[in-house]
Amino acid sequence: MAVSDTKTLGRIMVVDDQAGIRLLLNEILKGEGYVPFLAANGGQALKLIQEEDIVLVLLDMRIPGMAGTEILKKIKELKPDIKVMIMTAYEDNEMMRDAMQNGAIACFSKPFDIAELVTAIKKEVV
Questions:
Q1: Which domains, and CATH codes, for the chain?
Q2: pTM for this one?
């Protein structure tokens, strides 16, 4: 594996409008050896997707300004190979189904089990 590959292997973006969630996941991801990127809204997320070699996105579905499903669709349009895991505090089966149909690989309800989330990330980001 080339040195450049190791730099991009664990680049994960957290997209959530709640600063507390972003900071918590930032610390958890760093502690697990990943390189986290944080976005508070869809615009920031899409800019980072274009600028950075991100391999996985943890995406909140309820973000003011641009719905999570819209962000998901745009991420997949820009870079179809990026893996996206959904986070939501709302029990909305239709929204979750729509997210999975648009390329999400997993869905976690808030408050999520951190160990379960980390395990799911490790399965996807080798």
A1: 6-124 (3.40.50.2300)
A2: 0.88
